[in-house]
Amino acid sequence: MSEESADNSAAPAVCEAKILFRQLKPFPVIDENNNFKIETAHFLESSNQIIDAIACFGKLFSPIVKDMRQNVQKITDKYKQNESLFKYLEDLILKDKDGNDNPFDTVTDGLLWLKRAFEMMEQFFRNLLEDKTRSEQVKPHLKKAYEECLLPYHGFLAQKAFQLLHSFLPSRSSLLGTSDSNMDNLKALEEFLALFRANLTHLNEFYTKHDLHRTYKA
Per the database record, which ranges form the Glycolipid transfer protein domain (predicted)? Predict the structure, then answer.
């Protein structure tokens, strides 16, 4: 991916008839080269690009897209306060938690909800990959992902809002391309999800280690 396309999270190519996963910046590798932490700037850039891709689902998805963007912005605002100190996402969260009387009305809480939304989308795309029938009907895949990842944290109104969104999902081919042309896109999706899941698993373990999970309903 070129520097120009990486810098432009709203690149038109992301919003073509299908999501082009080869053009999305993969989430960070977590290894000894970065102290087994997530680089904040890289995470934010990848987050913005996958949110742009989700925005291609249609205007009715704007509420969930808006919510994800707001949570990314919370992290971005905190990061810009001290980019050196907050180079790694884990350090940013721990400083945020320690510096507030109520850490769960802050960046810590924003990342928690962003993680949950991302988990739903990661599971949705993984369900698409694992569907051997390649059915054009993708609603069951999103419903299953929602029930596993977000339903436990949603109250009545939030559940009703999801039911409306669920009714207006694009078809499989409009998201990933037609069967004749989408093999590279499916391969790119598989590669993208590997690092996406690794980041989400790492954040889950981090939140568990520092007792940052909260189970209140939205």
Answer: 38-177
| Residues 50, 21 contacting (CB under 8 angstroms) | no
- Residue 116 maps to a domain: yes
Distance CA 92, CA 39 (A): 10
Sign of the CA dihedral with 56 first, then 146, 168, and 129 last: positive
- The answer to whether 11 and 23 have CB atoms below 8 angstroms apart is yes
pLDDT digits (tens, 9 = 90+) for 149-181: 888 777 656 666 676 666 677 888 888 888 666
Q: Please report, for the domain that includes residue 121, its CATH number.
A: 1.10.3520.10
Q: 36: closest CA among 93, 82, 88, 85? A: 88
**Structural domain includes residue 10:** no
- What is the chain's Cα-based Rg? 17
Q: Note the pTM of the prediction, 2 decimals.
A: 0.85
**Greatest C-alpha distance within the chain:** 55
